[in-house]
UniProtKB/TrEMBL annotation:
Gene3D superfamilies the UniProt entry points to: Folate-binding superfamily
Any one GO MF annotation of this record: sarcosine oxidase activity
Protein name: Sarcosine oxidase subunit delta
GO biological process: tetrahydrofolate metabolic process
Source domain of life: Bacteria
């Protein structure tokens, strides 16, 4: 079972207490976006076998959205952080790199 710590209220919540929200750190386009930008926002998603950054909502708790870095194969959680964060915190990226040398995904720098 997947257990994530809510960065707001500090509760270790089981996945039954959470609601998934898809991929984290997507650039959302507003009015005036090109057809290609809007298409990519709707349909172009990472679906890695391994480390992934996701959005979750603590639905049966504080109700707030947050991000989680986890491995989709092993359910290993590298950390959680507030949804308002525009890129994964350095400590989480370093924890992933320490366990998975050579790991790359997106450039957040």
């Amino acid at each position: 079972m997947l257990i994530l710590t809510c960065p707001y209220c500090g509760v270790d919540a089981e996945e039954t207490e959470l609601a998934p929200g898809g991929e984290a750190h997507l650039k959302r386009f507003g009015p005036g976006a090109s057809d290609e930008e809007f298409r990519d926002y709707l349909f172009a998603r990472e679906n890695p076998k391994g480390v992934h950054f996701e959005r979750w909502r603590h639905a049966h708790g504080c109700g707030k959205w947050f991000h989680a870095a986890r491995c989709t194969m092993t359910l290993e959680v590298f950390g959680t952080y507030p949804a308002q964060t525009t890129k994964p915190p350095k400590a989480i990226r370093e924890a992933i790199t320490a366990k998975r040398p050579g790991w790359t995904w997106r450039e957040f720098e």
